[in-house]
Amino acid sequence: MLELQGVAKRYPNGHLALDSLDLALPAGRITVVIGPSGCGKSTLLRLLVGLEAPTAGRILLDGEALHGPSPAIGVVFQEPRLFPWLDVLHNVAFGLSRRLPWRERRELALRACARVGLAAAVEALPKQLSGGMAQRAALARALVARPPVLLLDEPFSALDAVLRAQLQAELLRLWGEDRPTLLLVTHDLDEAVLLADEVVVLGGRPGRIVSRLEIALPRPREPHRPAFQMLRARLLSALPSYNLQAA
Ligand SMILES: Nc1ncnc2c1ncn2[C@@H]1O[C@H](COP(=O)(O)OP(=O)(O)OP(=O)(O)O)[C@@H](O)[C@H]1O
Ligand SMILES: [Mg+2]
User: What CATH architecture applies to the domain 2-72+147-238?
Assistant: First the structure.
Protein backbone atom coordinates (compact mmCIF):
# COMPACT_ATOMS: atom_id res chain seq x y z
CA MET A 1 0.00 0.00 0.00
CA LEU A 2 1.27 3.43 -1.00
CA GLU A 3 -0.03 6.28 1.12
CA LEU A 4 0.22 10.06 1.23
CA GLN A 5 -0.51 11.73 4.57
CA GLY A 6 -1.04 15.50 4.65
CA VAL A 7 1.36 15.95 1.75
CA ALA A 8 2.18 19.43 0.47
CA LYS A 9 4.68 20.48 -2.16
CA ARG A 10 6.03 24.02 -2.40
CA TYR A 11 8.59 24.53 -5.17
CA PRO A 12 11.74 26.55 -4.43
CA ASN A 13 10.23 29.56 -6.27
CA GLY A 14 7.47 29.66 -3.65
CA HIS A 15 4.75 28.08 -5.79
CA LEU A 16 2.51 25.82 -3.71
CA ALA A 17 1.57 23.02 -6.14
CA LEU A 18 -0.16 20.61 -3.75
CA ASP A 19 -1.62 21.06 -0.29
CA SER A 20 -2.93 18.75 2.45
CA LEU A 21 -3.17 15.69 0.26
CA ASP A 22 -4.39 12.48 1.90
CA LEU A 23 -4.56 9.54 -0.46
CA ALA A 24 -4.09 5.80 -0.10
CA LEU A 25 -3.47 3.64 -3.14
CA PRO A 26 -4.89 0.24 -2.22
CA ALA A 27 -2.72 -2.73 -3.18
CA GLY A 28 -3.56 -4.32 -6.51
CA ARG A 29 -6.05 -1.67 -7.57
CA ILE A 30 -6.02 0.89 -10.36
CA THR A 31 -6.35 4.48 -9.22
CA VAL A 32 -6.72 7.10 -11.92
CA VAL A 33 -5.95 10.76 -11.22
CA ILE A 34 -7.62 13.33 -13.40
CA GLY A 35 -7.78 17.13 -13.23
CA PRO A 36 -7.11 20.35 -15.11
CA SER A 37 -3.66 21.25 -16.37
CA GLY A 38 -1.45 22.67 -13.65
CA CYS A 39 -3.36 21.22 -10.69
CA GLY A 40 -0.35 19.16 -9.59
CA LYS A 41 -0.85 15.71 -11.14
CA SER A 42 2.74 15.33 -12.34
CA THR A 43 3.98 16.81 -9.08
CA LEU A 44 2.05 14.12 -7.23
CA LEU A 45 3.64 11.45 -9.39
CA ARG A 46 7.16 12.84 -8.97
CA LEU A 47 6.63 12.84 -5.20
CA LEU A 48 5.50 9.21 -5.29
CA VAL A 49 8.52 8.18 -7.41
CA GLY A 50 10.81 10.00 -4.99
CA LEU A 51 12.07 12.49 -7.60
CA GLU A 52 10.78 15.34 -5.43
CA ALA A 53 10.48 15.52 -1.65
CA PRO A 54 7.27 16.76 -0.01
CA THR A 55 7.59 20.02 1.94
CA ALA A 56 4.99 18.80 4.46
CA GLY A 57 3.46 15.46 5.36
CA ARG A 58 4.82 12.06 4.47
CA ILE A 59 4.66 9.28 1.94
CA LEU A 60 4.57 5.70 3.13
CA LEU A 61 5.22 2.53 1.19
CA ASP A 62 3.94 -0.47 3.15
CA GLY A 63 4.14 1.63 6.30
CA GLU A 64 7.74 2.78 5.76
CA ALA A 65 8.59 6.38 4.89
CA LEU A 66 9.69 6.78 1.30
CA HIS A 67 12.99 8.62 0.83
CA GLY A 68 14.06 8.81 -2.78
CA PRO A 69 13.47 6.38 -5.64
CA SER A 70 12.55 2.80 -4.71
CA PRO A 71 13.00 -0.32 -6.85
CA ALA A 72 9.48 -1.28 -5.74
CA ILE A 73 8.04 1.54 -7.86
CA GLY A 74 8.10 1.52 -11.66
CA VAL A 75 7.27 4.64 -13.62
CA VAL A 76 6.27 5.63 -17.16
CA PHE A 77 6.34 9.32 -18.07
CA GLN A 78 4.35 11.12 -20.72
CA GLU A 79 7.28 10.92 -23.13
CA PRO A 80 9.29 7.69 -23.37
CA ARG A 81 12.59 9.11 -21.98
CA LEU A 82 14.72 6.39 -23.58
CA PHE A 83 18.49 6.72 -23.84
CA PRO A 84 19.03 7.54 -27.54
CA TRP A 85 22.37 5.72 -27.71
CA LEU A 86 21.04 2.43 -26.33
CA ASP A 87 18.95 -0.10 -28.23
CA VAL A 88 15.56 -1.22 -26.91
CA LEU A 89 17.00 -4.23 -25.09
CA HIS A 90 19.58 -2.14 -23.20
CA ASN A 91 17.04 0.57 -22.45
CA VAL A 92 14.70 -2.00 -20.95
CA ALA A 93 17.53 -3.74 -19.06
CA PHE A 94 18.23 -0.35 -17.48
CA GLY A 95 15.16 -0.97 -15.31
CA LEU A 96 17.02 -3.77 -13.53
CA SER A 97 19.61 -3.66 -10.79
CA ARG A 98 23.20 -3.53 -12.07
CA ARG A 99 23.98 -6.11 -9.40
CA LEU A 100 22.34 -8.80 -11.51
CA PRO A 101 24.70 -10.48 -13.99
CA TRP A 102 24.21 -9.25 -17.57
CA ARG A 103 23.08 -12.63 -18.79
CA GLU A 104 20.19 -12.60 -16.32
CA ARG A 105 19.32 -8.96 -17.08
CA ARG A 106 19.31 -9.73 -20.79
CA GLU A 107 16.96 -12.68 -20.27
CA LEU A 108 14.53 -10.60 -18.18
CA ALA A 109 14.68 -7.66 -20.61
CA LEU A 110 13.92 -9.95 -23.56
CA ARG A 111 10.93 -11.35 -21.71
CA ALA A 112 9.66 -7.84 -20.85
CA CYS A 113 9.99 -6.78 -24.50
CA ALA A 114 7.98 -9.82 -25.55
CA ARG A 115 5.29 -8.97 -22.98
CA VAL A 116 4.70 -5.59 -24.65
CA GLY A 117 4.94 -6.90 -28.21
CA LEU A 118 8.46 -5.65 -28.95
CA ALA A 119 10.23 -8.99 -29.39
CA ALA A 120 11.16 -8.12 -32.97
CA ALA A 121 12.49 -4.65 -32.11
CA VAL A 122 14.98 -5.35 -29.32
CA GLU A 123 17.95 -4.22 -31.43
CA ALA A 124 16.34 -1.01 -32.66
CA LEU A 125 17.54 2.39 -31.49
CA PRO A 126 14.90 4.81 -30.11
CA LYS A 127 15.08 7.01 -33.23
CA GLN A 128 13.99 3.99 -35.29
CA LEU A 129 10.83 3.46 -33.23
CA SER A 130 7.34 4.85 -33.81
CA GLY A 131 5.77 6.76 -30.92
CA GLY A 132 3.75 3.72 -29.88
CA MET A 133 6.78 1.42 -29.95
CA ALA A 134 8.83 3.88 -27.91
CA GLN A 135 6.08 4.09 -25.31
CA ARG A 136 5.94 0.26 -25.22
CA ALA A 137 9.68 0.23 -24.58
CA ALA A 138 9.19 2.66 -21.70
CA LEU A 139 6.44 0.40 -20.36
CA ALA A 140 8.72 -2.65 -20.65
CA ARG A 141 11.48 -0.81 -18.77
CA ALA A 142 9.00 0.01 -15.99
CA LEU A 143 7.68 -3.56 -15.86
CA VAL A 144 10.93 -5.50 -16.25
CA ALA A 145 11.63 -5.71 -12.52
CA ARG A 146 7.97 -6.60 -11.90
CA PRO A 147 7.53 -3.79 -9.38
CA PRO A 148 4.58 -4.06 -6.99
CA VAL A 149 3.74 -0.41 -7.73
CA LEU A 150 3.45 1.13 -11.19
CA LEU A 151 2.95 4.86 -11.80
CA LEU A 152 2.04 6.26 -15.22
CA ASP A 153 1.85 9.96 -16.17
CA GLU A 154 -0.37 10.38 -19.24
CA PRO A 155 1.46 7.49 -20.90
CA PHE A 156 -0.73 7.33 -24.01
CA SER A 157 -1.69 10.97 -24.53
CA ALA A 158 0.71 11.52 -27.44
CA LEU A 159 -0.59 8.50 -29.37
CA ASP A 160 -3.36 8.28 -31.93
CA ALA A 161 -6.74 6.93 -30.87
CA VAL A 162 -6.30 3.39 -32.23
CA LEU A 163 -2.86 2.89 -30.71
CA ARG A 164 -4.08 4.36 -27.46
CA ALA A 165 -6.94 1.85 -27.32
CA GLN A 166 -4.50 -0.99 -28.05
CA LEU A 167 -2.07 0.05 -25.34
CA GLN A 168 -4.90 0.57 -22.84
CA ALA A 169 -5.99 -3.01 -23.47
CA GLU A 170 -2.41 -4.22 -23.17
CA LEU A 171 -1.89 -2.34 -19.95
CA LEU A 172 -4.98 -4.03 -18.50
CA ARG A 173 -3.71 -7.42 -19.63
CA LEU A 174 -0.28 -6.81 -18.09
CA TRP A 175 -1.86 -5.50 -14.91
CA GLY A 176 -3.95 -8.69 -14.73
CA GLU A 177 -0.78 -10.83 -14.70
CA ASP A 178 0.93 -9.40 -11.58
CA ARG A 179 -1.76 -7.08 -10.22
CA PRO A 180 0.58 -4.25 -9.28
CA THR A 181 -0.83 -1.24 -7.45
CA LEU A 182 -1.33 1.13 -10.32
CA LEU A 183 -1.68 4.90 -10.44
CA LEU A 184 -2.39 6.48 -13.80
CA VAL A 185 -2.63 10.18 -14.55
CA THR A 186 -4.74 11.15 -17.54
CA HIS A 187 -6.71 13.96 -19.15
CA ASP A 188 -8.93 11.46 -20.89
CA LEU A 189 -12.31 10.79 -19.26
CA ASP A 190 -12.88 7.62 -21.30
CA GLU A 191 -9.48 6.28 -20.31
CA ALA A 192 -10.33 6.98 -16.66
CA VAL A 193 -13.65 5.08 -16.77
CA LEU A 194 -12.13 2.30 -18.88
CA LEU A 195 -9.25 1.56 -16.52
CA ALA A 196 -9.98 2.78 -13.01
CA ASP A 197 -11.21 1.06 -9.89
CA GLU A 198 -11.37 4.54 -8.47
CA VAL A 199 -10.99 7.98 -10.06
CA VAL A 200 -9.53 10.77 -7.94
CA VAL A 201 -10.30 14.25 -9.23
CA LEU A 202 -7.70 16.89 -8.40
CA GLY A 203 -8.40 20.57 -8.77
CA GLY A 204 -7.69 24.06 -7.53
CA ARG A 205 -4.48 25.95 -6.93
CA PRO A 206 -2.86 24.55 -4.90
CA GLY A 207 -4.13 21.17 -6.02
CA ARG A 208 -6.42 19.26 -3.70
CA ILE A 209 -8.71 16.26 -4.03
CA VAL A 210 -12.08 17.68 -5.06
CA SER A 211 -13.90 14.44 -5.69
CA ARG A 212 -13.57 10.65 -5.83
CA LEU A 213 -15.59 8.19 -7.88
CA GLU A 214 -15.67 4.40 -7.58
CA ILE A 215 -15.88 2.61 -10.94
CA ALA A 216 -17.43 -0.74 -10.13
CA LEU A 217 -18.08 -1.87 -13.72
CA PRO A 218 -16.88 -5.40 -14.55
CA ARG A 219 -13.96 -5.71 -17.03
CA PRO A 220 -13.61 -5.67 -19.95
CA ARG A 221 -15.62 -2.46 -20.09
CA GLU A 222 -17.53 -1.30 -23.10
CA PRO A 223 -17.57 2.46 -23.68
CA HIS A 224 -20.82 2.42 -25.63
CA ARG A 225 -22.79 0.93 -22.73
CA PRO A 226 -25.16 3.29 -20.85
CA ALA A 227 -23.53 2.47 -17.46
CA PHE A 228 -20.12 3.51 -18.84
CA GLN A 229 -21.53 6.73 -20.30
CA MET A 230 -23.32 7.54 -17.04
CA LEU A 231 -20.08 7.28 -15.07
CA ARG A 232 -18.31 9.39 -17.68
CA ALA A 233 -20.97 12.07 -17.33
CA ARG A 234 -20.66 11.99 -13.53
CA LEU A 235 -16.91 12.39 -13.86
CA LEU A 236 -17.29 15.33 -16.23
CA SER A 237 -19.57 17.12 -13.80
CA ALA A 238 -17.10 16.43 -10.95
CA LEU A 239 -14.25 18.12 -12.85
CA PRO A 240 -13.57 21.69 -11.84
CA SER A 241 -14.20 24.05 -14.73
CA TYR A 242 -11.18 24.92 -16.80
CA ASN A 243 -10.66 28.58 -15.96
CA LEU A 244 -8.07 29.79 -18.43
CA GLN A 245 -8.06 33.32 -17.02
CA ALA A 246 -6.87 32.05 -13.65
CA ALA A 247 -4.18 29.87 -15.19
N1 LIG B 1 9.94 22.74 -10.81
C2 LIG B 1 8.92 23.59 -10.63
N3 LIG B 1 9.12 24.80 -10.07
C4 LIG B 1 8.10 25.66 -9.88
N5 LIG B 1 6.82 25.40 -10.19
C6 LIG B 1 6.56 24.21 -10.76
C7 LIG B 1 7.58 23.24 -11.01
N8 LIG B 1 7.02 22.15 -11.58
C9 LIG B 1 5.72 22.44 -11.67
N10 LIG B 1 5.44 23.66 -11.19
C11 LIG B 1 4.11 24.31 -11.09
O12 LIG B 1 3.29 23.51 -10.23
C13 LIG B 1 1.96 23.42 -10.74
C14 LIG B 1 1.63 21.95 -10.94
O15 LIG B 1 2.43 21.44 -12.00
P16 LIG B 1 2.25 19.95 -12.53
O17 LIG B 1 3.25 19.73 -13.58
O18 LIG B 1 2.24 19.03 -11.36
O19 LIG B 1 0.76 20.05 -13.15
P20 LIG B 1 -0.08 18.95 -13.95
O21 LIG B 1 -1.38 18.79 -13.22
O22 LIG B 1 0.74 17.73 -14.16
O23 LIG B 1 -0.35 19.69 -15.32
P24 LIG B 1 -0.50 19.04 -16.82
O25 LIG B 1 -1.89 18.46 -16.85
O26 LIG B 1 -0.40 20.23 -17.71
O27 LIG B 1 0.58 18.04 -17.00
C28 LIG B 1 1.93 24.25 -12.01
O29 LIG B 1 1.40 25.51 -11.70
C30 LIG B 1 3.38 24.34 -12.43
O31 LIG B 1 3.64 25.56 -13.10
MG1 LIG C 1 1.55 16.79 -15.90
Answer: 3-Layer(aba) Sandwich (3.40)
